[in-house]
Amino acid sequence: MFKNAFILGTNNECIVRECDIIKLGNKGIMFKGNIYKSNEILAKYKTGLGDIFDGFFIHYMLNDYSIKKAIKNSIKKVEKVLDIPGAFNKINSLF
Description:
Layout: E1 8-10, H1 13-16, E2 21-23, E3 29-31, E4 34-36, H2 49-62, H3 67-79, H4 87-93
Parallel strand pairs: 1-2
Antiparallel strand pairs: 2-3, 3-4
């Protein structure tokens, strides 16, 4: 179908559908059976974290990063905003 299409979802979402990239919360990301770990710190404010990962992952893929590098860089972005309330505030702090 599409050469570089990915289905991203949380662990719960991927129970009911097949996903390429599974978001495991503070444990990191799973891709093709490999887990890319995060710092495992629990977020004080969780709202928007998955969306931030998705947005940065897409950004990195559109800029020709490897999948592995796009995942790792996106995790690092999410780790920077764990204690910031509100999705808009999180995004705003990254730019």
